[in-house]
């Protein structure tokens, strides 16, 4: 058996593919795609919480006065039915959000798969396999030829072949990654556009809850304490007023930030161009950052309101 | 399963949700405790009706998005399977080489034993 021929043929079996560019951009897309999907999922949960909270606070603000409780509109049966109807609606929405998150999981799986493809250590694995094969070829030759036989390939040549294998394996992998991204671009771009709609909905609901909470906070912790000029008109009042003004400025300017982002069509184009490797994910990330900022301010107000 | 809403329906439903939520914020500014009894009853009913309408709008929007996703899911799953296949293909080369190495190692051992 001509081991040299066999060894060369086997090594050449993995030297296929053509030149293609590397996977750093693809890794960015995969990582950012996975982050975007995970964030959307979490923000949908926040939106459900905000929607339920907004609804509950509104009911509290509309507490039936003692002088009106005897009216038939406020009998226990009527009140039970009212609450049931409201709860039913909220539960249906929460259930739909749950289904939506399941769809997002499928999209997330795509980006995780793409990440695994980009990060697969193909070059190292194939190079190691070539080194190992070279060693075995030399060993087999030794055992067949005995002391007369030196190494058939040798350590130096094996290493050189292994390195070349690594380089070409990287190119093969990069080609596969590029093909995968281009093949799936249309489907994934549509999925991301739907995700964008989910995010728009979540943003609207969270923004509404924050707006209403801030007004309640202002009324209870700032306006009333100021008018009373009593014990509650103190240093804490100063902090509360500052917080209200910070939140109010943020809320009033929020729509300008949204207008700057300008969603929908731009988002679809952005992701289509991202998926075809001309990459800029600034505006998509900006929406997520803005919504996180909404939630952060909401949390501060909630904490101060409960004091 | 509800028929998914069209793009135009989506936009108009979203606009309606914006309107209803803004209305909720306006209603929240009214001081309920100082209203006359009849006005209180009327105001409270308006808030409840508005809340029910908000729930309905939210439901329509999410239902529409979910229905669109449901239609796209088979293609998303196909894409996931394809990426999975790509990954397996990348691993095949090393598997083949390693299998050959193992075979050669076995032959070397046998020859050494015989000798």
Sum up the structure in keywords.
heterodimer; A: 307 residues; B: 115 residues; mainly alpha
Describe what you observe in this structure.
- The complex is a heterodimer of chains A (307) and B (115).
- In chain A, 83% of the residues lie in helices and 0% in strands.
- Chain A is built from 8 helices and no strands.
- In chain A, helix 1 (3-13) packs antiparallel against helix 4, helix 2 (24-61) runs antiparallel to helix 3 (76-119) and helix 3 (76-119) runs antiparallel to helix 5.
- The radius of gyration of chain A is 31 Å and the shape is elongated.
- Mean pLDDT of chain A is 84; it is low at 12-22.
- With 115 residues, chain B is mainly alpha-helical.
- Chains A and B meet through helix 1, helix 2, helix 3, helix 4 and helix 5 of A and helix 1 and helix 2 of B.
Detail the topology: elements first, then pairings.
The complex is a heterodimer of chains A (307) and B (115).
Chain A: H1 3-13, H2 24-61, H3 76-119, H4 122-145, H5 155-228, H6 235-261, H7 264-275, H8 282-305
Helix pairs in contact in A: 1-4, 2-3, 2-5, 2-8, 3-5, 4-5, 5-6, 5-7, 5-8, 6-8
Chain B: H1 7-28, H2 37-114
Helix pairs in contact in B: 1-2
Task: Briefly summarize what is shown.
The complex is a heterodimer of chains A (307) and B (115). Chain A has 307 residues and is mainly α.
What's the total count of β strands of chain A?
A: 0
Which word captures the global form of chain B?
rod-shaped
Estimated share of beta-strand residues of chain A: under 5%
What Rg of chain A is obtained from the alpha carbons, in whole angstroms? 31 Å
Structural class based on helices, strands and sheet pairing of chain A? mainly alpha
Low-confidence stretches of chain A: 12-22
Given the structure, what is the number of helices of chain A? 8
Task: Summarize model confidence as the mean pLDDT of chain A.
Answer: 84
Count of helical stretches of chain B: 2
Can you tell me the overall shape of chain A?
elongated
Main sheet attributes: strand count, strand direction, barrel closure of chain B: none
Query: What distance lies between the first and last C-alpha atoms of chain A, to the nearest angstrom?
Result: 86 Å
Give helix and strand order of chain A, one letter per element, not per position.
Answer: HHHHHHHH
H and E order of chain B: HH
Structural class of chain B: mainly alpha
Major beta-sheet overview of chain A: none
Query: For the largest interface in this structure, which chains are involved and how many residues does each contribute?
Result: A-B, 80 and 65 residues
């Amino acid at each position: 058996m001509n081991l040299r021929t066999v060894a060369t043929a086997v090594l050449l079996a993995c030297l296929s593919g053509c030149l293609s560019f590397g996977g750093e951009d693809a890794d960015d897309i995969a990582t950012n795609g996975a982050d975007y999907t995970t964030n959307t999922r979490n923000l949908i949960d926040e939106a459900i919480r905000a929607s339920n909270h907004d609804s509950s606070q509104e009911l509290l603000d509309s507490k039936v006065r003692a002088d009106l409780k005897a009216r038939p509109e406020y009998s226990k049966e009527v009140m039970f039915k009212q609450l049931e109807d409201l709860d039913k609606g909220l539960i249906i929405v929460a259930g739909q959000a749950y289904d939506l998150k399941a769809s997002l999981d499928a999209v997330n799986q795509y980006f995780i798969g793409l990440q695994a493809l980009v990060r697969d250590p193909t070059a190292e694995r194939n190079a190691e396999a070539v080194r190992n094969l070279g060693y075995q070829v030399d060993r087999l030759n030794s055992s067949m030829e005995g002391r007369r036989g030196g190494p058939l390939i040798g350590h130096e040549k094996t290493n050189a072949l292994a390195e070349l294998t690594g380089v070409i394996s990287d190119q093969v992998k990069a080609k596969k990654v590029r093909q995968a991204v281009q093949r799936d671009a249309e489907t994934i771009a549509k999925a991301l556009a739907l995700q964008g709609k989910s995010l728009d909905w979540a943003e609207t609901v969270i923004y509404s809850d924050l707006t209403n909470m801030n007004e309640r906070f202002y009324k209870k912790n700032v306006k009333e304490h100021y008018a009373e000029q009593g014990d509650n008109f103190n240093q804490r009042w100063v902090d509360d007023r500052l917080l209200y003004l910070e939140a109010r400025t943020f809320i009033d300017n929020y729509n300008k930030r949204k207008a700057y982002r300008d969603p929908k069509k731009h988002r679809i184009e952005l992701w289509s161009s991202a998926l075809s490797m001309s990459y800029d994910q600034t505006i998509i990330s900006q929406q997520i950052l803005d919504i996180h900022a909404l939630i952060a301010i909401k949390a501060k107000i909630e904490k101060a309101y409960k004091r | 399963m509800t028929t998914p809403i069209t793009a135009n329906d989506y936009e108009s439903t979203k606009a309606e949700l914006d309107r209803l939520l803004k209305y909720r914020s306006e209603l929240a500014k009214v001081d309920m405790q100082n209203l006359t009894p009849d006005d209180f009853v009327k105001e409270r009913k308006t808030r409840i009706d508005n809340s029910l309408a908000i729930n309905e709008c939210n439901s329509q929007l999410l239902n529409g998005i979910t229905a669109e996703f449901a239609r796209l899911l088979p293609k998303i799953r196909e894409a996931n399977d394809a990426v999975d296949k790509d990954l397996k293909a990348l691993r095949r080369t090393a598997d083949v080489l390693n299998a050959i190495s193992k075979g050669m190692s076995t032959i070397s051992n046998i020859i050494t034993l015989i000798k």
